[in-house]
Amino acid sequence: MLKRMNDCIQYIEEHLDQTIDLDELARLSTSSKFHFQRLFLLLTGYTLAEYIRKRRLTLAAQALMNSEVKVIDVALTYGYETPESFSKAFRKAHGVSPSQVKGPGTTLKAFPRISFQISLKGESEMNYKVVEKEAFKVIGKSKRISSVDGRNLKEIPMFWDEVVSEGVIDRICNVAGTDDTVGVCMEFDDQHNEFTYVIGAETVKSQKEFEEKEIPARTWAVFESVGAMPDAIQGVWKRIYSEWFPSTGYEHAGGPELELYPPGNPNDPNYRCEVWIPIQKK
What we know:
Blueprint: H1 2-14, H2 22-29, H3 33-44, H4 48-66, H5 71-77, H6 83-94, E1 128-133, E2 136-146, H7 152-165, H8 168-176, E3 181-189, E4 194-203, E5 211-215, E6 218-226, H9 231-244, E7 250-252, E8 257-261, E9 272-281
Helix pairs in contact: 1-2, 2-3, 5-6
């Protein structure tokens, strides 16, 4: 997996002065566009768009420093339609305008190329189990979420705030007959970079108040998260992709992913929740 991600970085580097095709990156990573972008963010801490922008502005600064090229030419080369938009982004990244690059004592910032590798850090053990689960039903409220430029990172927390503040989550749990809630990513649309996010609860009851989503039968890897939200569970997601998948005989099986939240104080340092990922043998 890490080799495939390094192949993606190589492709990006070779096309920083051209159009970078997300479909090609997904193909190189042998995953969907959504899962590639999510994996990239988990492993690097940057959205794909942020990384590309930072690398382009690094190379733009080098081009301006080492040649007599015009600012407009550099702007167009690295994907900016106008000198004004380029200057704004350049100043934000480097603290100076493009015209000041060759000034005496000018300090610029270089954002280095990323590479992926397995790092043995002596981390604590990861508690997980493999579960075979038949198809089940989740009831709740759903929303179409965009994964463009990491919008899902803002849209999903806002959706949770909305559902909790309006008391919807309490009604869902009452109807479902459980205190456990779930957040589910499903119904991925790679063409439009969207997916459905469901906030709800598992149930076997019939009802008409909320939407119903069928989660197919799968083999699941279930990982325990211990700690205050959201840092603890974000750390688990990162370790799943950077440590667990590369060191096991499993790969992502596609389809829905979910997080299970038992009742409790999510800010408690001992709060426990779970990440469920569909898996299959390589």
